[in-house]
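Notebook entry, structure prediction.
Reason for the run: the old model in the group folder had no record of what sequence produced it. Starting over properly, with the input documented here first.
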Amino acid sequence: MRPFSTRATRPAPAERVLSILAAAHSMTVVTDGREEEVHRLDGAGPTGHIHLHDPSERCPAGPTGRVPVRLELTDIAPTPVRERLRARVTLTGILDAPYEPGATRSACMELGQVLLEDADGRAFVPLGELRAAEPDPMAVREAAVLTHLADDHAELVPLLLRLVRPRPDRDMVRALPVALDRHGITLRLEHPASHQDVRLSFPTPVTDAGQFGSRVHALLSAARRSSHTHHLLT
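New structure, fully documented this time:
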């Protein structure tokens, strides 16, 4: 199902990874045969606890030597849609010392591989691409904005559905916002035995979180115009 705009706009894998890291509230650290669930990242995100380095910039080995490590993060939809898991990010590499959850300093990690898994498949993201990218300006606000839209402005979702082409099937039982980024908003259309995601692109990408309101108003205005035109033709 196509969005109302033919312009293909969505975050690149490197931007997705950085956005997930920026918004993460927890992660799993797997090292030395143990799993540590790290919660309450205090707004610093995973990279505030484990600093990523290129292999050419090796950290000095600690007293116990270098330790293989894997960081696992999941991206969960903030709204109560079906199948809330949106993506997984796995970072593998080498720590300069065994990981200590209570350590006051950031651990040094020589990055080996970054894997993004989502509905589009699997993508390996080089460190160079991560360094060249920026997290989405809406990343840390996405959850609050989507839950506010779903809980306090649910009447706007049917209006946005007027932009979906072809029009949603008549057996649709529910539509909820499931994702938001600088390029647009994604709605999940749920049917009795399935669901599908439709993407509505903003007229221009958001470069600052403060621009989000104007972009949504542009979509709503387009939806009202679409409804008016449809009424005149029937």
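Summary: The chain has five helices and ten strands.
The old model has been moved to the deprecated folder.
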